[in-house]
Amino acid sequence: MELKAKHILVGSFVLISMLSLFAFVAWLAKVEFDRETAFYEIYFENSVNGLSPAGDVRYRGINVGSAEHINVDPENPERVRVLVEIDAAVPIRKGDRARLELQGITGVSYINIEGAQPGAEILTADRDSQYPIIPSEPSQLEKLALGAPDLVASSKELADRAAELLNAENQRLAAGILADVAQITGSIASRTDKIENIIDSLDRSSADVVESVRLIRQIASETKPLVQNLEASLSTARGALAGVDNLIGNDGEAAVVEFRHFLAESRQLVAKMTRIADRIENDPSGILFGTPDAEFKAK
User: Fold this and answer.
1) Where are the domains positioned within the chain?
2) Distance from C-alpha of 117 to C-alpha of 95, rounded to nearest angstrom
3) How far is the C-alpha of 85 from the C-alpha of 116, rounded, in Å?
4) Pick from 91, 101, 22, 15: which is nearest to 57 by CA?
5) SS3 sequence, 8-56?
6) With 90 as the cut, is the pLDDT of residue 33 above it?
7) How far apart are CA 140 and CA 101, in angstroms?
8) Which of 96, 90, 104, 44 is nearest to 70 (CA)?
9) Is 125 helix (H, G, I), strand (E, B) or coil?
10) Three-class SS state of 173
11) Residue 102 burial by CB count (10 A; 0-12/13-18/19+): exposed, middle or buried?
12) Does residue 4 come out as left (phi exceeding 0), alpha (psi in the -120 to 50 range) or beta?
């Protein structure tokens, strides 16, 4: 009886476990069925080392899908075709680019998609393609590897030019230049006192220039009132001249007549003064004491 009960218990446990596993699988399948996805093709021109089926596909670093199939392009063996499944809610637009990125130091690669501008059109399939094609671009590491030959060639060319530059003739010229520079430096060092004297003289000259400028400004400020007074005097003189012009213009004829009368009277006065002067010169005593004939007649 106990053995039969144990068998029933074990059988029940196994049945319940199987039912639970079946329910879990059904739930997981339902979730997968409810999730809408979209397929895209990506063609890589270079190696896809490190990328495997079910590898991550990220959009700007966010995991949005996985790589479903990886195979060589039948139409062009130099390309690798990767079919990716991406969440349909992620908008893949024109301008997006796919490139391989390394995940840490494990060597595992994933596909990262980015580059589209806001408002760009949604990427759709061409007439000749079953799925939309996302353009690819080399990764930063691939770009560095692709540019390595050019870098090596440039480095070699630079080394060759450096070797040409450092030939014996140029070395001799460089040694001569260094010797001349050393001589010039020594000459300057031996004339330090003279250079300091020149600098002191320049400082004094600068001080004299500053003082001269100050004096010129002071003279200009003191001369300004004199100039203003001179301008006022000139203005007064202009007014006086204007008054004289008006006087001449209004009473010119009368002034001329008066002046003529003045000249005539002046001539008469001068004539009388001349006669008096002649009498004084010829007979001063007669002028002072009178003539003898006149006194005699009076007696």
Assistant:
1) 33-140
2) 7
3) 19
4) 101
5) HHHHHHHHHHHHHHHHHHHHHHHHHHHCCEEEEEEEECCCCCCCCCCCE
6) no
7) 8
8) 44
9) coil
10) helix
11) middle
12) alpha
Using DSSP, state whether 59 is helix, strand or coil.
strand
For residue 161, give both structure tokens: 């030019």
Residues 6+ apart with CB under 8 A from 25: none
CA 44 to chain centre: 44
Q: Does residue 41 contact residue 129 with C-beta atoms inside 8 Å? A: yes
Please write the tens of the pLDDT for every residue from 68-102. Answer: 999 999 889 999 999 999 999 999 999 999 999 88
What do you get for the CA distance between the two ends of the chain, in Å?
222
- Give the separation between CA 130 and CA 179, rounded to whole angstroms: 77
Tell me: pLDDT of 269 over 80: no
Cα 285 to Cα 275: distance, rounded to the nearest angstrom:
16
| Alpha helix ranges (H) inside 166-290 | 168-190, 192-282, 284-289
The pLDDT of residue 255: 59
Q: Is 263 helix (H, G, I), strand (E, B) or coil?
A: helix
Cβ(121)–Cβ(99) under 8 Å?
A: no
CA distances from 168 to 10, 163, 164, 177 (A): 96, 10, 9, 14
Distance, in Å, from the CA atom of 255 to the CA atom of 159, rounded to the nearest integer, reads 111
Top-confidence residue, 47 or 96: 96
- Token readout for 4 is 């039969």
User: Comparing 249 with 273, which gets the higher pLDDT?
Assistant: 273
DSSP H or E segment with residue 108: strand 108-114
